Amino acid sequence: MKIGGSTRVFLILGDPVAQVRAPQVFNHLFKQHGVDAVLVPARVAPADFDSFARSVLKAGNIDGLWLTIPHKTAMVQMLDHCDALGRAANAVNAVRRNADGSIEGALFDGIGFAKGLDLWGVPVAGRNVLIVGVGGAGVAIAATLAARGAGRIALAARDVKRATGIADGLREAFDCEVVAVPTPDPAGYDLVINATPLGLNASDPPAFDVARLDSDACVVDILMKNQPTPLLRACHARGVAAYPGFEMLIQQVPEYLTFFGLGEVAAAVQDDLSGVRALFEAGD
């Protein structure tokens, strides 16, 4: 990769950033498709985020930001424009500076998740969904599934007050029943999603009791590492359909490229995501 004065610079902001996969994927795609651009990770503490983000977007050759934990929500207050899913979830994971200088944000976590469901042939419309965890990804998924016509969405989290507030907001934004539930009991749900970090460590308790799953339920664990996760292994042992979360990232790649004005590259990548999938799998 040759970086010069005309190179478009993008940053991925998080704290920490050692775990991020996006630079290896997007820099490969930039090189492969002859795009003069680079994506660089930057570790920014929450206390410094506001001033850093506002300042860095003033640089003429820094065209946009990727946002990861814990900055997806903090960015929203700085935006001049935001897409509907980002507004509903109060979080964004992509930000660009438009030609008029305005700052625009979008949220692709839920879109990537839903495209993964399409790939696996898992229906959404009318389904009874349980989402365990209401962090940025969990809320983004809930917003997208509500927009896609899920029949009912239950949110389970340790902070029941937060889950209740999110459910209230999503009910107002979408024609969907969204409720907070006190426990992550998966019985009776068609689609159960682990949107917590539980499973990253061997000592973690399970996000929910796999034995309580209906036999025809479908499970998605959005953890990106330790594949297959303990939850996926337990589901497979029971014969329950279960899928890994890294597909959510793979399916977002064309969305980012389109958002940042690289529509032709996005179309080529969307036509064949096998190369992107191989890049993610190579990082496991």
UniProtKB/TrEMBL annotation:
Domain (Shikimate dehydrogenase substrate binding N-terminal): residue spans on this chain: 12-95
Metabolic or biological pathway, per its Swiss-Prot or TrEMBL entry: Metabolic intermediate biosynthesis; chorismate biosynthesis; chorismate from D-erythrose 4-phosphate and phosphoenolpyruvate: step 4/7
Signal sequence extent: none
Gene3D superfamilies cross-referenced by the UniProt entry: Leucine Dehydrogenase, chain A, domain 1 (3.40.50.10860), NAD(P)-binding Rossmann-like Domain (3.40.50.720)
UniProt keyword Iron, yes or no: no
Record carries keyword Lipid biosynthesis: no
InterPro entries in the cross-refs: Aminoacid_DH-like_N_sf, NAD(P)-bd_dom_sf, Shikimate_DH-bd_N, Shikimate_DH_fam
Keywords attached to this entry: Amino-acid biosynthesis, Aromatic amino acid biosynthesis, Oxidoreductase
Pfam family, one: Shikimate_dh_N
PANTHER family from the UniProt entry: BIFUNCTIONAL 3-DEHYDROQUINATE DEHYDRATASE_SHIKIMATE DEHYDROGENASE, CHLOROPLASTIC, SHIKIMATE DEHYDROGENASE
Name of this chain's protein: Shikimate dehydrogenase
Organism, as annotated: Variovorax rhizosphaerae
